[in-house]
């Protein structure tokens, strides 16, 4: 007999024995599906119209209880000593009301997800999160760290909403119709001393109230993407520990200045169809920035020289660059980029510049010597996809090949300050030179069996008088 067979037999006997002692034969696992050895109860799309379930007879320990995608409209209080669970999720229901102290008997509850329900400001009050009444006062829900309220009908918060949730770290309020952070909401937020992550995405905000970040002492991440902000809010300057600011999808047109936030490590400025230009030194106040992601700004045509520079002293002028490690400026409308944008291109760990209409002329010549070798090293695939967009003669040429061939990109005559026939003369001279060059090149190529690189030639491009106009307006 194979030595493994008795072992296998033992396992077959032991496994069913173990599963008897799991989450018991509770109604939960009959109505819903229990997975991960019965630690996760998945009641998604189970046709549940109300809670709690009719029979809670057996006490149960679960890790995650999911009621998503049902038609629950009212949540009654969970009964005493019946359920332990770290996470309870009610996403995509029709909840309008929740009983007071509904969660006080759920042991070990860390996260409640009430996203995509019909909660409205008048019925959603702090009493819902009351704990047990001990010694003449309500105890807090001391394990609660995460509350998700995305996609409801909240336009203000009960000032006492978080009274019984003093250890909350993560709060998502995105996709609610706030419009403005009013006084009540501000007081509510000020009552979460340990808040680290606040999501106010898509809440129709035009401004950030002055002291919001002053009171949230421990905030690390603020997501205010897809609002109606027209500038980088100066109120961010009151933050104490903010590390990550997300401003994607706001109608910002130009960036001239920003508040001083020396703690900021990552800034997201993406998907802003109106953003056209980022001015010199305008982002310099984020002195410790490490990651900058500005992608999919389809009108962003210019990032000025020194946009990230902080001027430490004016006389004599001392400029300081943040030590950027990750830069992504893909999918914008950038044609030229100044090398002084980043202090040291060699120190980047991640860099994306793809899908911009880069002009292969002398202004971008530093791409070939400085930028491309770094991109080729970090992301060879992406490097090989980078091509010149202009001038017409260079369109589609691989920037990586130009770099590897040590080519020299010529200057464009884009100011059109020469008489019209100059162009013809230059063109004629060019053709003549080209013919000579071609003959020499042909001979050389024959001798060295190498292809000649045109961009290495000495010929100026044909006049492209309108390039500036194309890119700048
Ligand atoms: C189920 O429990 C057994 C024994 O405790 C363990 O070996 C196994 O990895 C668990 N399976 C899952 C999916 O958690
Ligand atoms: C124990 O959990 C498993 C799922 O891992 C389930 O199939 C089984 O029915 C449970 N046992 C009892 C007695 O409910
Ligand atoms: C919940 O866990 C605690 C200990 O952490 C335990 O005393 C209690 O019996 C558990 N409740 C249920 C319903 O299993
Ligand atoms: C739940 O877990 C706790 C501690 O981990 C244990 O004391 C209790 O008996 C468990 N309850 C059930 C019903 O398994
Ligand atoms: C739940 O509903 C949402 C919104 O209707 C849908 O996007 C999602 O796929 C559904 N999830 C499941 C598991 O059915
Ligand atoms: C900010 O919100 C957007 C939109 O909901 C989301 O895609 C992104 O992951 C969020 N970012 C962070 C850091 O939370
Ligand atoms: C930098 O921050 C300081 C202090 O908040 C402010 O006075 C200055 O205008 C800011 N500079 C820029 C270029 O944003
Ligand atoms: C790019 O931005 C546009 C708005 O200008 C938005 O509709 C689109 O979803 C964004 N694309 C990606 C991939 O984020
Ligand atoms: C930059 O962002 C684009 C999306 O616009 C993504 O496809 C690309 O992988 C990113 N590159 C890097 C280096 O992160």
Automatic annotation (TrEMBL):
Database matches in Pfam families: LRR_14
Q: Does the keyword Ion transport apply?
A: no
| Residue ranges annotated for the LRRCT domain, each copy included | 356-412
Membrane-spanning segments: 425-447
Sorted keywords for this record are: Leucine-rich repeat, Membrane, Repeat, Signal, Transmembrane, Transmembrane helix
SMART domains per UniProt: LRR_TYP (SM00369), LRRCT (SM00082)
**PROSITE patterns on file:** LRR (PS51450)
Is-annotated flag, keyword Ribosomal protein? Answer: no
Highest taxon above the source species: Eukaryota
As given in the record, the signal peptide range reads 1-19
What name has this protein been given in UniProt? Leucine-rich transmembrane protein
* Lineage, highest ranks first: Eukaryota, Metazoa, Ecdysozoa, Arthropoda, Hexapoda
């Amino acid at each position: 007999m194979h030595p493994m067979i008795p072992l296998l037999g033992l396992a077959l006997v032991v496994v069913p024995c173990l599963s008897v002692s799991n989450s018991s034969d509770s109604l939960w696992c009959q109505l819903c599906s229990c997975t991960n050895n019965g630690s996760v109860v998945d009641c998604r799309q189970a046709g549940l119209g109300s809670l709690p379930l009719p029979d809670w007879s057996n006490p149960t320990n679960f890790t995650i209880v999911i009621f998503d995608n049902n038609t629950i409209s009212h949540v009654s209080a969970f009964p005493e000593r019946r359920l332990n669970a770290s996470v309870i999720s009610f996403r995509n229901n029709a909840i309008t009301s929740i009983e007071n102290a509904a969660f006080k008997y759920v042991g070990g509850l860390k996260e409640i997800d009430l996203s995509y329900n019909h909660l409205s400001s008048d019925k959603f009050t702090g009493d819902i999160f009351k704990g047990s009444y001990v010694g003449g006062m309500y105890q807090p829900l001391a394990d609660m760290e995460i509350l998700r309220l995305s996609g409801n009908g909240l336009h203000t918060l009960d000032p006492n909403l978080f009274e019984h949730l003093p250890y909350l770290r993560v709060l998502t309020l995105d996709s609610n119709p706030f419009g403005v952070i009013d006084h009540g909401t501000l007081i509510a937020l000020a009552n979460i001393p340990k808040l680290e992550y606040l999501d106010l995405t898509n809440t129709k905000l035009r401004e950030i109230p002055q002291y919001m970040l002053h009171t949230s002492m421990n905030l690390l991440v603020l997501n205010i993407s897809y609002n109606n902000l027209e500038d980088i809010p100066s109120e961010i300057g009151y933050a104490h520990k903010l590390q990550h600011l997300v401003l994607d999808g706001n109608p910002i047109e130009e960036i001239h200045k920003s508040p001083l936030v020396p703690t900021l490590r990552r800034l997201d400025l993406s998907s802003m169809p109106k953003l056209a230009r980022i001015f010199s030194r305008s982002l310099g106040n984020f002195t410790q920035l490490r990651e900058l992601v500005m992608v999919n700004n389809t009108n962003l045509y210019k990032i000025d020289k020194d946009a990230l520079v902080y001027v430490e002293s004016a006389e004599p002028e001392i400029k300081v660059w943040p030590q950027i490690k990750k830069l992504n400026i893909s999918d914008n409308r950038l044609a030229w980029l100044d090398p002084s944008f980043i202090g040291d291109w060699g120190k980047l760990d991640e860099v994306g510049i793809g899908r911009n209409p880069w002009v292969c002329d002398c202004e971008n010549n530093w791409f070939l010597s400085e930028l491309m070798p770094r991109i080729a090293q970090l992301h060879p695939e992406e490097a090989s996809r980078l091509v010149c967009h202009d001038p017409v003669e260079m369109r589609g040429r691989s920037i990586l090949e130009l770099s590897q061939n040590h080519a020299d990109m010529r200057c464009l005559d884009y100011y059109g300050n020469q008489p019209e026939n100059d162009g013809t003369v230059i063109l004629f001279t060019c053709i003549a030179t080209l013919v000579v060059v071609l003959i020499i090149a042909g001979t050389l190529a024959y001798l060295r069996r190498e292809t000649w690189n045109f961009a290495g030639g000495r010929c100026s491009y044909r006049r492209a008088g309108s390039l500036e106009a194309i890119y700048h307006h």
